[in-house]
Design a protein that fits this description.
By secondary structure, the protein is an all-alpha fold. It contains eleven helices and no strands. The mean pLDDT is 93. InterPro entries: HD/PDEase_dom, HD_domain, OP_Dioxygenase.
Length: 184
């Protein structure tokens, strides 16, 4: 399955975005918080779009498999399916950080002993199914990826965008930004 339009992409959030991301926030709330954080830190439009759409693979999983409880430990590699889905309409500057954001978590766990303990309970649980912290060889390989820095920034917003009840701009506020980035 590949995206054919921004309307289709946003439609996934409109239909499935109320599903829980973790115990406290919905998929849509998490996506919007991450995009707002990226914008507030001066990220370019490509990275703001990546922050907004980084977990769209979870919505694709919900559409295909139904809701999966956050604590289930099931890993459908949402980062890969999401990046692949979006790659039909968005450039690599959007999709590559999405594809790498789980690896960025594994990298950060390896290089910063405090990082793993700062993760939410759900994120620590999913880390196990994602392969755990990188070893030194994996760290070296990840750090050579052209979008590694952007993926790390995205990962940090991903970790922070879980505040219940936080007021952020609505999904529709990002439509023109997304429309401007479409490459088809």
């Amino acid at each position: 399955m590949t995206a054919t339009s921004v309307t289709q992409v946003l439609g996934l959030y409109e239909r499935l975005g109320d599903e829980l991301y973790d115990e406290k926030v919905s998929q849509s709330s998490h996506a919007l918080q991450c995009a707002a954080l990226a914008r507030s830190e001066g990220a370019d439009d490509f990275l703001v779009a990546a922050a907004l759409l980084h977990d769209i693979g979870h919505l694709l999983d919900i559409e295909t498999h139904g809701p999966v409880p956050p604590k289930s430990g099931v890993n459908f590699s949402h980062e890969k399916s999401g990046a692949q889905y979006l790659s039909s309409i968005f450039p690599p500057a959007v999709t590559d950080p999405i594809a790498l954001h789980v690896l960025a978590k594994r990298y950060l766990c390896a290089i910063d002993a405090r990082y793993e303990s700062s993760l939410s309970k759900g994120s620590r649980q999913s880390l196990i199914g994602q392969g755990g912290a990188f070893d030194s060889k994996e760290c070296a390989e990840f750090s050579q990826q052209p979008e590694a820095i952007n993926a790390i920034d995205l990962r940090c917003w991903d970790d922070s965008g879980k505040v219940p009840g936080l007021t952020v701009p609505p999904l529709e506020d990002y439509r023109s930004l997304l429309d401007d980035l479409v490459v088809i």
